[in-house]
Amino acid sequence: MRIHILQELQPYSKTELQKIFELEDNEIINILNSLSSLNILKTLSNNISKIELEDLLEIESLDNQNLDAMYIFKYVGMLSVANICLIIYPKYINNCMKDKENNYKKFKEIIAVIRKYQHREQKQRCGDEQEENNFNLLSVTLDLIEDYLENGLYWNEKHIVELNGEGEILWEKTINESIPYFINNVPIYLDTFTVNQENNEEDYFRRLHSCILVEAYNKIKDILSIIYNIEFLNNISFEKRKNFGSLVYIILKLNQELSTQFITKKQNTLNIIKKYLLNENNNSLSKNISYIGTTNFNLVWEDVCSVVMENCLDKTLKELSLTYNETNNIKLIDVIEKPLWIDNLSQVSHRAKKTLTPDIIRIKNNNFEIYDAKYYKIRLDKNGVKNQPGVTDITKQYLYELAYQNFIEQNKLNIKRNAFLMPIDEENKKFLGVASMKIFSNIENLKLKQIEVILVPCEKVYKEYLNKISYV
Predict the structure, then answer these.
(1) N- to C-terminal Cα separation, the chain
(2) C-beta separation of 76 from 294 below 8 A
(3) CA 194, CA 174: separation in Å to the nearest integer?
(4) Rounded distance, CA 406 to CA 37, Å?
(5) Alpha carbon distance 293, 275 (integer Å)
(6) What's the per-residue H, E or C state across 401-443?
(7) Contact (Cβ atoms closer than 8 angstroms) between residue 440 and residue 408
């Protein structure tokens, strides 16, 4: 399988993509249409009104290009299609080819972060837009492997009854079948029956599990070798699926086992096996395209920042040892007032269900910090600013501080920072600059913070993210 390295939001012409796939004109069109239907690929046009503004802002070297028949991957991750493996890096990575020379160290970590996020959100597909019935061989195979690495092969115990063994004594069988010796009218049994429990190596589901693992691994081992070194899987089974009966029979057996199995991790194993097997009844598009990644890496970045920065929004004031208006039974997010709507005729008021929602609030050492995780590749220097958050983003940051003003004063907290957090492919954190608006800065007595722009080194925060969270 040939491997090609691409980058998120980098424009590619149809000719360039056709050269990568080495396909005829009609074949490449079918693949591009399929990738578009999965929201992995977006078509650009000279009619800017049809393109998402946020996408356009971050595409490099757009000004001098003819956008007709240009494509961008709004996707980060791996793709397997037409015997080609595409590795698509996030837009902030500086040198993708250098990472290839380093055995894909950064990319492996990015995939681990995406997988961790998707498990947290209980998503095992390309993005929010995908239908559940779009089977994804790569994703399900990774589920099988990760489940195996964490829990081992599926197991059911078998009970072995022994004479004078080391297990628990079966008193009823011992009394009924052994000769007692009486000492002072007390029966003594020199021979006792015992029971031992051990894994049943010949269990149907254990054998099926090992067979499916090997089968799935062999289908895409060229791709898996990029992110895993797991060649040993080939040695755990030499059986073929036909040894276990027809597909209908196997699914029936799995359903029967699921109906009597109450251990959650074993249920998960059975369900992944079942999902893999049911692929035979899925559509051809799902069979031809496998992927592991996300069309919404911005959500991954938000979750990484939220975890690493120890977001307090969902904590109660009691947990934070704080109060607001003489109560501590509410969450920090509920401190922000919800809009009030009043009917003009009846003067009846209605409280809205939603209000301002900051990304991250951290309260630590009596300091109050406001952060907004922004997945932008910003440029800010003496020559100008490019790829920056919009006016709405800046005004919201000011409003978050205003919304918590009374709470901060009541608890005598210190407003330490209000900042945007953006990814950077470097080793150290950078304070790039600030954003401000005089209409907020000039409000008397408030002294609102300027909005700092902080570039966060991705590799460091990814390691912390992976170490802090386990799969849900």
Answers:
(1) 33
(2) yes
(3) 8
(4) 48
(5) 19
(6) HHHCHHHHHHCCCEEEEEEEEEEECCCCCEEEEEECCHHHHCC
(7) no
Residues 404 and 322: beta-carbon distance below 8 Å: no
Q: Which two tokens stand for residue 405?
A: 């003003």
Per residue in 164-213, pLDDT (tens digit) is 877 778 888 888 888 888 888 888 888 887 776 655 568 899 999 999 99
- Please report, for residues 61, 78, 121, 176, the alpha-carbon distance to residue 132 in angstroms, rounded to integers and kept in the order given: 37, 19, 14, 57
The residue with tokens 């250098």 is 98
Give dist(CA 218, CA 241) in Å, integer. 13
Q: Are 156 and 206 in contact (CB under 8 A)?
A: yes
The single residue listed with the structure tokens 């056709």 is 18
330: number of Cβ within 10 Å: 14
CA distance 463 to 352: 39
What is the residue whose two structure tokens read 């929010």?
A: 128
Q: How far apart are CA 88 and CA 107, in angstroms?
A: 9
3-state DSSP assignment of residue 335: helix
Helix (H) or strand (E) holding 324, with range, is: none
Instruction: Return the amino acid letter for 354.
Output: K
By three-state DSSP, how is residue 345 classified?
coil
pTM over 0.85: no
Q: What distance in Å separates the CA atoms of residue 235 and residue 212, rounded to the nearest whole number?
A: 13
What whole-number distance in Å separates Cα of residue 86 and Cα of residue 109?
Answer: 17
- Under DSSP, the state recorded for 94 is S
Q: What is the pLDDT of residues 95-118, one digit of tens each?
A: 999 999 999 999 999 999 999 998
C-alpha angle 167-173-178 in degrees, rounded to nearest 5 = 100
